[in-house]
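Moderator note: this is an archived Q&A kept for reference. The question asked for a predicted structure of one protein chain; the sequence and the answer are reproduced below.
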Amino acid sequence: MWRICVVAQCGALFSAKIILFLYCMTKLSVNINKVATVRNARGGNNPDVCRFALDCEAMGAEGITVHPRPDERHIRRSDVFALRPLLRTEFNIEGYPSKEFIELVLQVKPAQVTLVPDAPDQITSNHGWDTVAHEEFLSEVVAMFKDAGIRTSVFVDPDITMVEYAAKVGADRVELYTEPYAAGYAKDREAAVAPYITAAKAAKKNGLGLNAGHDLSLENLSYFAEQVPHLDEVSIGHALICDALYLGIEETIRRYKECLRSGK
């Protein structure tokens, strides 16, 4: 009987450790904008954005991210509506909170909305919000989304003040803009990651969840995940889709998830 109890207790402890490990794992959200860019280059529906998103889920992605821009140069509004009832993982819609964007998100009600300070003609996101200067505006926008039950993340540079004011505007999470880390990784990775460690600790102190994204890749992701604490989610698109051209999407997702596992 004693042996049975010990085995049962060890089994329960092992199961608890497994659950804790899975809970602590950083989630991978695949940004599928580039897939839509390829489709739009020729018209028609090849590649099929919805099918690609579902395949990513089946292959292990824990989330799908889209960034519907006003000119619809990649993801279209119609894609957002088509994806919503199909996805089984977390759906993250990112974009500048214009009137049209706010209306779209409130209609679709994704799991998460990520607010980015992009101009309409911007090629890609290249800086975070000045949450101090835009405190009033962001407070109003965040309140609308939270009232609708949508988790809200604010895209910020790895700066303590920007993180603290993201908490003040009522955000649930911040997403750290990681291009500076990616650019500095090859030169001095310790110096490149240092501001992100500090910002992550500030996010935790202020009760914020932590996301990260922009130019994270198979080359630099493991070290980032290893060094930056409290990391809930990374959103990766351009590098992941480029890798998939050579490796295939299933193997690529496997490798990115392995980077997140080895980092933890």
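Archived answer notes: The first strand starts at residue 27 and ends at 31.
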